[in-house]
Amino acid sequence: MVYPTSTITDMSSEPGRPVEGLFPEPTRRDLLRTSATAAATGMVVPAMVSAQQAQSSAPSSASMETLQGEVALELTVNGKSVALKVEPRTTLLDALRNRANPPLTGAKLVCDRGNCGACTMIVDDKLVYACLQLAVDMRGKRIRTVEGLSSVDGVSNAAQLSPLQQSFCEHDASMCGFCTSGFVMAITHCLEKKPNASLDDIKLACAGNACRCGTQPHIFEAALAMAKGGAK
Amino acid sequence: MTAFPGMTYPSGPQDNAPKQTKKKIKTTKVVNGIEQEVEIEVEDVAGPEWGPRAALKVLDKELIRVDAPVKVSGRAVYTHDVRVPGMAWARLLLAPQPATKITKLDFAACAKIPGYLGHVVIEAQETRWLGQPVAAVAAETSEAAEDALRAIAFEYEALPFVLDRESALKPDAPKVSRRGNQSKPQTRGDEGKAKAAIEAAPHKAAGTYSVPVVHHACLETHGAVVDWRGGDEATVYCSSQHTFGFAGDAAKTLGLKNSAVTGIVEHMGGGFGSKFGFGQEGDAAAKLSKLLQRPVHLMLTRKDEFLMGGNRSGSHLELAGGMDANGTLVGFTARAHKQGGIGDGSLSGLPYIYKCAEAWTEVSGVRTNMDSSRAMRAPGHPQASFATESLLDELAYAAGLDLVAVRKANLDDTVWHRQLDRVAKEIGWFEHPHRTQPGNAKAELCTGIGFAISRWGGGGGPSCEVEVAIERDGSVTSSVGSQDLGTGVRTYVAAIPAEEFGLPLSAVVARIGSTRLGNANGSGGSVTTASLAPAVKDAAYNARRAFAEVLAPLLGCTPSEVSFADGSVQAAAGGKRLTWKQACAALPEAGLRAKGVWAAHLQGNGIHGAQAAKVEVDTLTGRVRVLHMVCMQDVGLCLNRAATRSQINGGMVQALGYALLEERVVDTALGLQLNPCLEDYKLPHSLEIPKMTVILDDEDTRGVIGVSEAPIVPGGAAIANAIHNACGARIRSLPCTPDKVLMALGKVS
Question: Is the CB of residue B693 less than 8 Å from the CB of residue B420?
């Protein structure tokens, strides 16, 4: 489990217990560490398949295999199948932003190393930083991005926002907006796990998300308005 | 005057408008974010008026931003997100040392990278700052561009360099610039008289204060997408604070006419003063696009951003002051060095805001082999504020006086008096035990309160051209090329016409962020709102008057009797009434368009702010936790209270950042920046955010004024002063990290 660095020193006077599964799961860095002995040309994937098998969606065996060159993938994103070609090293973030057609650019590339939360997604009900996930590891998983939280009305072209997204609008919880997708995903996940989240829960849930404009006070208000029974 | 619907109405005086006269007003002129107060002559037209605040239906209210839905749903397209067919991905090669003589720059191996497309050389001879761009490469994918970067055979001879102030001032220091390592000192006041005044004062204090270089750290890095495919025209997307600025630069590099290049800034992810020009990154993207005859996407990586994407200059300030028994600052001296890398940095006048009969200052810039500082939210003000407010507290304690009373004693402008009193009340000052003497560190957790004030211009000038269009189907569009940095520009561009026409905000569409729309100035130095909002108002006013001309015959009244309210138009005094849609149906096919330009009387200049911070210091660990920050700010007419509060919160959060966390750390021997990433360059995150209170000073009855800069100024000084107030730890060097707290308490050496 990876905790954002600031959580350790800055727990408030009433330290809330981290919600289970709230924090991003195994990281690209962990992966790179475990595969340090791999051939320099490829990337070793834990849930391993051969390059041919990579075409199918179900990872099969625990045997180690090296992927090389272009890999065709089918990912399940927001309930839909997305076919794309990646390199073994391509992150989930780059795959969806740069290689999917149409591109999914709601998640942002800001730090590229898990420091900022701008690329936060939900994968199999766990919060992940998409810049730390390899796209080839994502087969067979349910990937949720910020685009999946709302729908666009085909007639009026108006966005049908999720209640949390609507609350963000009403509480002016976005300034430049570059961090907003990440905060929305982190807090969506928090409220799904703990509908009665407190202010401390919410702060902890987005402790890994950076906002340079300083929108946090309004983000907390927007989130608390959605939390059932949370301190208001 | 006769109405000509469908025609473009000129702005300015119309039939019943009073006779024009010229008048001189003071306003703020900003060059690359550096504020200067100038006097300009304007036409004195009593045309549009904001009207009484109480009568406003849209403005001065809590508005939902018109672009909030696309931002919260991930559908807002920033420059980073632009994807055009055939787009190549580019990366920059930066100098890895502060000063180099380039001996080899060979791209032969790049050709072996699958997907490699080409390169341009930016600097082939010498580099003289850490991170200076050397070359750019482009490839079919971002991964291949990274590989190509690594395939460049780049060899250099490291030249001597200096990265810190002390080394740069040594007589035998390597020369950073042909101009030398220090700019000519600028002095003000009489040194002898100032020193004598301090000497004669009953209470004295002196100290050396330092503020490090910090970064803008915009979440969207600098960069551009240049979409040119070899034709006569190009479209350039840029993460920029000045839509009309970079497009011209791009045209020059592409060899096209200015009018052939469309600049687009639909949404942008933060600028804070660092994103004015096209930059070397934009220029490289344009050169690559020209070379490849295809679109090129070049955005800085996070590390690039730290090295070349902008920083606020550091300061080293040696201050001394004297105070009389009443708390009056009677003498003040300051010798200051600005540290702006190869640039000269910025520093506001000293003492900051407070008056002093005998003040002497000497300020010079000290150059190092780092990237030039750029304007950053209130350039030079936070540094001057931190040093001045710290010294003032030291003098107040020496004199045994109340910290708020001392501030008021040195301020003639009573706006600051009421603001200081109010923030003091909100933070709990009058119940606080340490009002004239700091607390001590006997307890494990100590609580303290600190204060500081700010000022800024915030006035505008004539630069924006706005068009408001009313169509036959009832739709209304308000258009200007200006950009929204997250400040809420797009929303008030729509809200002002909505107010004028008696419509809800949702009835007006704002179009901004393109050079195809009317001209607009760059957003820096808090000049946007006071420049743009009056022009939007003028356009809406002209449109309303023209529309009234059309409607008067239908309503059986004179144009001046037509009233617009609650989604309908009506002849005065219970006369005939039409819904907005019915009224618009009377327009010809081409609808109605009106232009607007700046009107001086709709804006103001010169704002005040006061902040208070309450902190808790852990005297065992040295950790500081900010508990509460309060800001009171005058803002003139507030266009959107929610967005204004957001921006003031943001200033306080950023102040908390530079007060406690932020600092560019360099290895002066090896010539490296040690924290060019968001892991080691720490921004305030959710767990550091205290309770925050924003009080808008509604006694301010002026027109619109820019609010961005002022709120970032006082917070740092207020926090540092609060730490001292809590436990007696006077920290004269930002950021106030735990080690410095413990050192100041004498617990570590």
Answer: no
Same domain? A29 vs A123 = yes
**Which of A7-16, B323-332, B353-362, B476-485 has the weakest average pLDDT?**
A7-16
Q: Over the stretch B69-113, which tens digit does the pLDDT of each residue have?
A: 999 999 999 999 999 999 999 999 999 999 999 999 999 999 999
Spatial separation of the C-alpha atoms in residues B367 and B371, rounded to whole Å: 10
Cα–Cα nearest to B240, from B524, B644, B649, B467: B524
- pLDDT of A56 > 70? The answer is no
The tens digit of pLDDT for each residue in B546-582 reads 999 999 999 999 998 999 999 999 997 678 999 999 9
**d(Cα B18, Cα A54) in Å, to the nearest integer?**
77
Which residues 185-224 of A are in CB contact (within 8 Å) with B? 202-204, 206-220
- The single-letter DSSP state of residue A99 is I
Residues of chain B neighbouring A212 (CB-CB closer than 8 A): 216-219, 270, 272, 654, 683
Show the tokens assigned to B279: 């930059």
Cβ contact, residue pair A214, B645, below 8 Å: no
Q: What is the CATH number of the domain that holds A165?
A: 1.10.150.120
* Torsion angle of C-alpha atoms B150, B155, B157, B162, degrees rounded to 10: -20
Question: Which residue in B74, B269, B272 is closest to A106 by CB distance?
Answer: B74
Pairing of strands B8-9, B508-511: unpaired
Residues on chain B touching A118 (C-beta within 8 angstroms): 219
Q: Residue B711 has what pLDDT?
A: 98
Work out how many domains chain A is built from and give that number.
Answer: 2
Complex-level ipTM beyond the 0.90 threshold: yes
Residue B738, helix vs strand vs coil: helix
Whole-number Å distance between alpha carbons of B564 and A159:
30
pLDDT at A34: 45
Residue type for position B95: A
Which fold would CATH assign to domain B311-458+604-744?
Aldehyde Oxidoreductase; domain 4 (3.30.365)
A142 and A171 share one domain? no
CA distance B240 to B221: 10
List the one residue out of B237, B238, B76 whose CA is nearest residue A106. Answer: B76
CATH architecture of B23-55+459-602: 2-Layer Sandwich (3.30)
Any bridge partners for residue A31, and if so which? none
Mean pLDDT of B24-34: 62
Nearest to A81 by CA among A101, A60, A111: A101
Q: A52 touching B, CB under 8 A?
A: no
Residues linked to residue B569 through DSSP beta bridges, in sequence order: B564, B578
Mark yes or no for CB contact A108/B645 under 8 Å.
Answer: no
Token pair recorded at residue A221: 């208000």
Residue contact A177–B218, C-beta within 8 A: no
CA B57 – CA B672 distance, rounded (Å): 55
Helix axes B381-399, B714-727, angle to 10 degrees: 30
Total beta-carbon pairs less than 8 A apart between chain A and chain B:
206
**Token couple for A231:** 């301190």
The pLDDT tens digits for B426-446 are: 999 999 999 999 999 999 999
Q: Are B410 and B680 in contact (CB under 8 A)?
A: no
Cβ atoms < 10 Å from Cβ of B554? 15
pLDDT (0 to 100) of residue B9: 38
CA distances from A172 to A107, A148, B187, B688 (A): 20, 21, 45, 20
Q: Which of B113, B119, B148 is nearest to B134 (CA)?
A: B119
Taking the model in full, what pTM does it have?
0.91
